[in-house]
Protein: Ribosomal RNA large subunit methyltransferase H
Organism: Alkalibaculum bacchi
Amino acid sequence: MNITIITVGKIKEKFYTQAIEEYSKRLSRYCTLKIIEVPDEKAPENLSPAEQQGIIDKEGKKIIEKIPASSTVITMEIEGKQMTSLDFSKKIEQFAINGQSHLCFIIGGSLGLSQEVTTISQLKLSFSKMTFPHQLFRVMLLEQIYRAFRIIRNEPYHK
């Protein structure tokens, strides 16, 4: 299986980078992983709604340019579907059974995802109603993908 993660912004903190490297290494046993970072747009504090939408749309265009052809698009959205880790693993397994062997997860910028991106999403997924820093969320997503593969293969993993 191929997994692409498209994310807005770069990782700056070394501890996040180390965690991402660790989960990327672990995942290499189960899939081909590619992480694509698109630059975030500068967003000053007091933006008007129109300015915010302009930033979201610019970031959305950059994201869409990077989505691999014929991949299954999964957007990470606060209002998306929440699943248990077991349900998430079953969903990934079902994608594979259905011949959807390239999953593309999208993590938007601090202002969210454009409607252009969410419209093409085949699964809108949420880990929580809470908001997380994008850098931390990337680590959390990698961990859950790793956990899903362990569950699919009936390999032990902390419950």
Q: What stands out?
A: Strands lie at 2-8, 32-38, 72-82, 102-107, 123-126. The longest strand covers residues 72-82.
